[in-house]
Specification:
By secondary structure, this protein is of the alpha/beta class. The chain has a domain at 16-80 and 117-161: Double Stranded RNA Binding Domain (2-Layer Sandwich). It is 27% helix and 38% strand. The chain contains three helices and eight strands. The chain has helices at 2-14, 45-60, 146-161, and strands spanning 19-22, 33-36, 64-65, 72-87, 90-96, 99-105, 109-124, 129-135. The strands form two sheets. It has a six-stranded mixed sheet with strand order 1-8-7-4-2-3, covered by helices on one side. Strands 5-6 form a two-stranded antiparallel ribbon. Helix 2 (45-60) packs parallel to helix 3.
Length: 168
């Protein structure tokens, strides 16, 4: 039982909260309708998953989806990120009963890790300016299967909209 509780706490601690930014001059209480931005990219399975997750959260926040002239236009994208990760070289120190030791292992190798971060923007139709933005800090990887991807998008979008409307 303790192992399960400890593991759950570790997993919760590893899930990164999204980064939220917004326009301090916008009265978010006046926003009631939305539409999705026209996409330049072809239809995709992830696009459908993201739109479904956003539509669910927008409905929960009191928004109504319209086809034209909403109060806000919702944009979303998966921003591709890359990171170099080193592996291979290690240095170790130790103290033994009869002395001190140092160990070294080489060569150092680098590998590129690619992942995506979900970005959701709300653009005010009147001013054509971004008024709210959320960026997922959890990583979407290519190795995720359909069920895991669906869960990922639902969880990330729910976390993003948990902080909407912003406290001003």
């Amino acid at each position: 039982m303790w192992k399960t509780l400890l593991m759950s706490l570790l997993l919760v601690g590893c899930s990164a909260a999204p980064t939220i930014d917004y326009s301090a001059t916008t009265n978010f209480a006046d926003l009631n309708t939305y539409q999705f931005a026209d996409s330049d990219s072809p239809a995709s399975l992830d696009g459908e998953r993201i739109e479904a997750a956003i539509a669910t959260q927008m409905t929960l926040k009191g928004f109504t989806r319209v086809e034209e002239q909403g109060d806000v236009i919702v944009h979303y994208a998966i921003r591709e990120e890359r990171e170099l990760q080193s592996y291979g070289t290690t240095i170790g120190f130790g103290y033994y009963s009869r002395g001190f030791g140092v160990g070294f292992s080489a060569p150092e190798r680098l590998r590129e890790i690619r992942y995506g971060n979900l970005v959701v923007d709300m653009v005010d139709v009147g001013s054509d300016k971004v008024i709210w933005q959320a960026v997922s800090n959890s990583r979407l990887t290519e190795s995720m299967g359909p069920d895991k991807r669906n869960t990922f998008f639902n969880e990330q979008v729910a976390k993003m909209f948990a902080q909407y409307p912003p406290v001003q």
